[in-house]
Amino acid sequence: MKILIVEDDQKVRKHVKGALQAEGYSVEECEDGEEAQWLLENYSYDLAILDLMLPVKDGIGIVKQIRRKGISIPILFLSGRSEVSDRVHGLDAGADDYLIKPFSTIELLARVRALLRRRSPITPSVLKFEDLEMDLTRRTVSRAGHSIELTNREFELLRLLLESAPNPVNKAIITEKIWDRCFDSETALVNVHINHLRQKIHLPGLPPLLHTIRGVGFTLKHPTDK
């Protein structure tokens, strides 16, 4: 899941970004409204968290503009304005939720989860391929009944592969979905994480499932499959 944070207060922005990344989300950030609108109109995100008052262009103006263009991304406003009229104005402009500063980090994360669930109501809670299983609700992974411990990044990488299996996923898609869009799709970073993931899910006595297709990408498949 990729989230855009738009906040001109660097301390708040870094705090929110760190909290989201700790939960396994891919996060991009910017600090003014004009750049935010350009990013939202030209790149795909699963959620945007916007400060209401921003340099160059405020949050209300951004939301109105992207809604007019048919962009339906969930929007969560952050604002120090606590009057009912301010909240109503933000929601009427096209935002999906409104959180007043200062806010609790656990409440922010709960609202993020709620908005993402609302956007993807038919997402299955368990992903499977052969004897490899991922529980998205509990954030657990197992193979043939054996629990596998993954980092947040490895978890999201495996999730992407499971959602695509048996079709391959190339490096460009992986870097877009799992890392910042600015990363070079040929970076060795992808190979490093693939290798770590391969070592963890390839258990003794079980056939390897994670394979590299030269010039194409990576896929989950049984070794006997062509």
From TrEMBL:
Keywords, in A-Z order: DNA-binding, Phosphoprotein, Transcription, Transcription regulation, Two-component regulatory system
Ranges that cross the membrane: none
InterPro entries: CheY-like_superfamily (IPR011006), OmpR/PhoB-type_DNA-bd (IPR001867), Sig_transdc_resp-reg_receiver (IPR001789), WalR-like (IPR039420), WH-like_DNA-bd_sf (IPR036388)
Pfam families: Response_reg, Trans_reg_C
PROSITE patterns: OMPR_PHOB, RESPONSE_REGULATORY
Domain Response regulatory intervals: 2-116
GO molecular function list: phosphorelay response regulator activity; transcription cis-regulatory region binding
DNA-binding region, residue range(s): 124-222
Keyword field contains Cell wall biogenesis/degradation: no
PANTHER family: REGULATOR OF RPOS (PTHR48111:SF22)
The protein, known as: DNA-binding response regulator, OmpR family (REC-wHTH domains)
Organism: Methylacidiphilum fumariolicum (strain SolV)
Gene it is expressed from: ompR
